[in-house]
Structures are given as C-alpha cells and as structure tokens.
From TrEMBL:
Stated name of the protein: Carbon monoxide dehydrogenase
Named cofactor requirement(s): [4Fe-4S] cluster
Membrane-spanning residues: none
Residues the record lists as binding [4Fe-4S] cluster 1: C38, C46
GO term, biological process aspect, one: response to hydrogen peroxide
Species annotation: Desulforamulus putei DSM 12395
Amino acid sequence: MSKMKNTIDPAVNYLLPLAKKAGIETVWDRFAAMKPQCGFGELGICCRICWKGPCRIDPFGNGPQRGVCGADAHTIVARNLIRMIAGGAAAHSDHGRHIALTLLEVGEGHAPAYRIKDEQKLRNIAEKLNLAPAGKDIRQVAKEVALASLEDYSRQKYSISCNWAKETLTAERVDKLVELGVMPHNIDAVIAEIMHRTHVGCDADAVNLLLGVIKGALADYTGMYLSTELSDVLFGTPEPVVTAANLGVLKKDAVNIAVHGHNPVLSEVICDVALKMNEEAKKAGAKEGINVVGICCTGNEVMMRRGIPLATNYLSQELAIITGAVDAMVVDVQCIMPAITGVAGCFHTEVITTIATNKIPGATHVEFREDSAFDSAKKIVEVAIDAFKRRDNRKVNIPDYKQTAIAGFSAEAIMAALSKVNAKDPLKPLIDNIVNGNIQGIALFAGCNNTQVTQDNNFITIAKELAKNNVLMLATGCGAGAFAKNGLMTQEATEAYAGDSLKAVLTAIGKSAGLNGPLPLVLHMGSCVDNTRAVKVAVAVANKLGVDLDKLPVVASAPEAMAEKAVAIATWAVALGLPTHIGIVPQIMGSSVVAKFLTEKAKDLLGGYFIVETDPKKAADQLFTAIKERRKGLSI
Ligand code: XCC
Ligand code: SF4
C-alpha cells in the first residue's frame, strides 16, 4: 500500500522523526489510528439528532433507507450540512460580535487599551452604512458604526436585510438573494432558525434545507465582513509588509510567544505589551528579548498588520511546541487542537487559554478582558518569561527553515498599489489587463489544512498550475500560511512561476508601487474572516464593469478544507456567484439531491457552484476552465 505523505513542509518533515523518537504523538499518528474512518459519516448519512437514533442509511440499498422517524438520506445529509454551516457562522459572527463590542467600548471611552487606528476607514464605513458621519466626532461615529453592526445580530424584522450584507454586494446580487428568500436579516436569528428547523420532526425537505444552507452561509458572510472591517478600524488596515514564515522564525535566544487562534483583540495587545517587556525578558537571560510569532489566523492577523512572522499553519501547530523553543502558546478561539497541552507536557511550554468559553484541560487560564487588556497581556507575558527560565536547551530543535513572505494585501492596499499606476482610475489597470487577457482571471485560495491530504500540497500544486496560466492569486487563512511557508509569497516566486503576461503585470504594478520588482505570486489577504477583502475587490470590479459577480472570471478554492467555517465560506462563495473548488470529498455524497444541487442546480440559481476534485492538477484545470467560460461569457 502506498502511503500518502503527511506534508510537504520541510520544517515538519524535519521534526516528525524527532517527535517519533521522543514518543510524542501528533495529528498524523492519530489520523492513522482512526482509519478506516466511518463510511456512513463520510457520506453524511448518519443522524444523531434525536435519541431514537443514531440512525444510518444503508448506501448500498439493502438495509434501512429511512431513520426511525422516517427521515431519508437526503433529509439527513442536508440537515447535517446546514448544522455545519450554523457552526461556521456562529464562530465567525461571534468573533465579529466581539470586535463590534470592542469598538462600541472604544466609542464610549471604556477600553483604554484600544483606540481607533484608522479613522478614515471608520468614516468610509459609516458612509457605506448610511450613517452620515460628516462633521461628527470620531468616537460618536465609532459608536454608531458599532451599533449598526450589532443591529445585524438583533433586528427582528424579517423583511430588512442585514446592513453588512446588503451594503457590500452588487445591487443585482442583493436583489437575487432577496428574491430567493436567502438574505439574512439577523445573524443570530438565522443560526437559531437552523437549529430549530433541524430539530427532530421539523424541516424534512432537502431542497428547502439547502436554501437554508445558503442563507446560513450568507449570515456567515455578514459576520465575517464586519469582523474584518471593524478590526481594521481598531488595529489598522494592512499594508504590504515583508516578513518571514515557517518554524525557523523561532529564536533560540528569545522568549518565544506563539499567538494562536483567530481574534486580534488579545494578540494585538500582547504585541504591544511584549515590546514594553523586552528588558525583563533580557534580564531573564533571553539575549534577543521577546519574539512573538503567529499560528493559524491570529498569526495571519498580526502578520498582516505588524509583520509578525508566521510560525506555522493549522496542521503543524503541535510541531511548534516540539521545537522545544516555544515558551508560551497563547490561544484564543477556533482551530486550537486540544492535543497541544499533551505535547506541551513533554516540554516547558505553557499553553495559555484566554477566553472563558474556550478552555483546554492542562492549560493555564488567564482570563482576558477588554477593560483590563493591558493587565491580562502583562500577566501572559510574565508567564512566558517564567517558562523561558525553565526551558531545557538540550530539547531545543529549531528547524532551519523559513521563507520570506510579503503580506498585508488588504483591498485598500491593492487599490493603493493600482493607483500608483493610474491615480485617477485605479481599477482601470486591473480591468484592462483582465480584458486584454494578460490576467486571465482571479483565484482566491482559502481554508484549512486537512489530514486527508498531504499538508500544503494541494495549495502549492494548484497555484503553480494557475500561475502558468496567468491567473492572479489571492490567499487567506491556512492557505495563505501554506503559501507563505513554501515561498510563494515572494517576488522570486513570481519570477519563477508566473506566466509571461502575469509576470509583466505584477512587475509593472510592483515597480510603480515602489517594491523594486514584481508583486508576490500570491497576495496575502489575511485570516479566514478576511476572505471578504477579496469580495470587496471583486464587487468594485463588477460595479465598474456593470455586471454581477457571477459574470467575472473569478474562482475560489479551498483545496484542503476542514472546518465548519470553511464549509460556510465556500458556500457563500457559491452564493455570491463563484465557481468554488473543494479538494476534500465533502460529507454530502450520500444524497444525490444535495450533491446535485450544490454542483449543478446552484449554477442556475446563483451562478456559482461547487467543483469537487481531489486531484490538484485536475482541480487547477477545472478552475481554469471555469475562468475561460466566464471570459467567453463576457466576450473577452
Ligand atoms: Fe482554522 Fe483560520 Fe481553517 Fe486555518 S483556515 S484551519 S478554519 S485557522 Ni480559515
Ligand atoms: Fe433517527 Fe430521525 Fe432521530 Fe435522526 S431524527 S436520529 S433519523 S429518528
């Protein structure tokens, strides 16, 4: 039996044998032990919604075709899917709520650790939300924007769409979604509605549930969009920054603090406080002071805004600890493996949880509160410095692998770079180059790592193929992490892999923008919630061309998707009109109705549709075919 490689990440490949020798189990060991995985679960035809179950449908047609209550495979698959969407939307939108509440506190003057870093962006948002900010005090504007955002969690009128959904899409898209009855009016209500309609004995109509899937995904979109935009207001809108990625960013002579999770509300303050506590770290013997590094999307957040290096992405989070050089891993919410405290137990590493609703057995909990953010951050840094004193240098193995990575491509940063080419009409150079075919289309890479496939490999393989075909590429989340670690967010990668016309465009823009060379091959747009940055660019292009999003040669790909959040993101990409690839077989194949809807029927309804393809080369072909089809539709 040929064994699939675990990863293409050289740092991980360096450390895995060391882990094995030390008897430390990792995600790949547990994955191997889990095999064979449950076939019913893989197909999505197992139901545990009530205690008459669990029920499972026989996919071969010999055994039961209905659960005890009579639900068939289509109902069960659709219900399982929509509950995943609810999970994803809840995660993203709760993160968004946290940011909105923090902005409200700032507006009210209750959060001394925070301030409004990007006033202009706040005013632009207020304008977009029709809040007439002109002449108003900035704190007043902050309050009004926060409240208008929180309204998207509390509005009771079903007929009024969420502010952040209706003001950020093309008018045509909004009309279409309203007509289909899938525009959310209230994020929380949509999530509650999903839990209700999937309670035993409720919605059994798979197609009706699938429309609910779209609505849930759009609630996810709403929460993500406001999360990104308000984070920029509080912490600054990212601008291009040169930094580094992979485990080689850890430093032997520094107190290494890894910030991991998703929410910048804490990590931003930790970065501030770490700067101030450098001397204390030095006193403790760390010649280089404090070295903050990032993991997963908290890592992307601080990388985009501060140039903090990215240590690693999702699947290799345990390996960061196995270097023996991480003194504290500070986690907030989402995508934190409970396994890390076990690994940390073999070293001196302190795992510090910070959020009351996200604790891990074996971790030290330092509760984080916005009103006393500095104190919490200080305490966390002290725990890290203390742990550093206990570090066993014989156990330190920092892999000598790191890559340069250029990050920080917010929509605003892209517009700024383009305006260096054409100040009056910044979108023109982009659109002209799409129309003349120098840029064939745009691909947005998003989503996670997954043990089902070789870590990072799908991302890199697909990107190299699309680069050859002159496709402009954007990335977020752990996909961005994959590109950063593997050297695709560099100018050298553009030279090495971009097709001639793409290279020429990236070079022209890069040079005008003062980068002394091309833009990187893949533009780092941020964390998972930041996928909406790409929507912002796409909507601007669509509006300028006077077409809807489903006409643009823009595609999305989550080739190593794993989380419920990724399922929600991919689904709203479809709802917005994008051909959207997933490189993992989704757990829906037990229902022909659901599978057909998402891969075919969605196209008629929304313009977007799912492409399921596990072979990365074939996936690249299909994505490029979708781009060409769109070009044909536009007669370009
Ligand atoms: Fe999580 Fe955002 Fe997925 Fe990475 S990409 S594994 S969701 S950290 Ni969003
Ligand atoms: Fe079985 Fe129906 Fe209960 Fe699901 S809801 S566990 S299918 S009886």
